Fold Oxidoreductase.
Amino acid sequence: MLKAGVLGAGHLGKIHLKLLEQSTNYELVGFYDADQQASKQIEDEFGYKSYPDMDTLIDSCDMIDVVTPTVSHFDCARKVIQKGKHLFIEKPITQTVQEANQLIELAKKHQVKGQVGHVERFNPAFQSVSDKFDSPMFIESHRLAEFNPRGTDVSVVLDLMIHDIDVILSVVRSPVKKVYSSGVSVISETPDIANARIEFENGCVANLTASRISMKKMRKSRFFQRDAYISVDFLEKKVEVVRMKDAPDDSDPFAMVLTNAEGVKKQIYFDNPKIESNNAILDELDSFAMAIKEEKEPVVSLEQGRDALEVAMEVINNFKQL
C-alpha cells in the first residue's frame, strides 16, 4: 500500500481524507492544514492524524494529495515533487500555465508521477460512452450551479467550465485553433457567467456555457458526430446515444427510417450503455495508485491538466465584459 498524505483539510480535503482511508490502495498517514484550530477539530472528530508542518507530512508519505486553495497549488506541489513524492493535485493544476510547465519539468527531473483531479473523466455516465466517440464535430456543454461563495476566489471558468474543457479536449484530440468568449460578473469580483466557443484545427466546434448563479443545477454535454448523437448528463448520471445507419432493404415496418433529399434512407438506432455506479473521486485516486504501481501514464496527466488550464486562461483573457 502507498502511504498517502493530504495537504488541505477544507470541504473537499475532508472528502479526500475519508476516501483515502477507505481505499485498499493507500495507507492514510495524515494531513496538514494551515488552520491549526480546524486541524485539531478534524483530528478529534475523525481520528485523522494532524501534522504540525507540511515537510514532516511529505517526508512520511509516498504520495501527497494537494487539496489546498488554487493560489497555493504551485508552492505545495513543487515542494512535494522536489522531495521525490508522487503528486495528486486538484484542478486547476496551478494558477498559471507557466507554473504548470514548471511542475511538469520538475516531475520529469525527479521521476515522479502526477495526476490532476479532473473528476468528470471518472463520471460513470461519461465512462459508459467513452469508447463511442468518433471525431465529434460539434459539442454543446452546459454547467450551471447555484451560488456558493466557497468557489468565488476564482473565475467561473476555473471553478466550473474547466471540467468541460478537460472532457472535450480528451474527446476531440485536436489542437485548439481559436477561442472566443464573453463573461459577466454579477455577484463576484470575477465573472459568474461565461460562454466560450472553441474551434479546433480538425473543424470541430465546441460551445460551452458555465454559470454559478443559476436557479437550478445542470451538468450536461451533447456530442454530435457523423451518424451519431451522444448526450451525457454528468449530474443525473444518464446517457443517450442515437445512431444512424444505412437502412436495410427489409427494415422493420416499425423502425424509424429517415429519407434525405437524395433518397438515401437512414435507420435510427438507440443505444443504452450500461452505467456502473461508482464513487468518482475514489476511482480517480485509486487509478493514480495503479499508475504508480504499474508505472503507467495517469488517466489525467500533469500535461493534460496544463492543457485544460491553457484553454481556460485563453477563455478568460478573451473575455468581452458586458
In short: The radius of gyration is 22 Å.
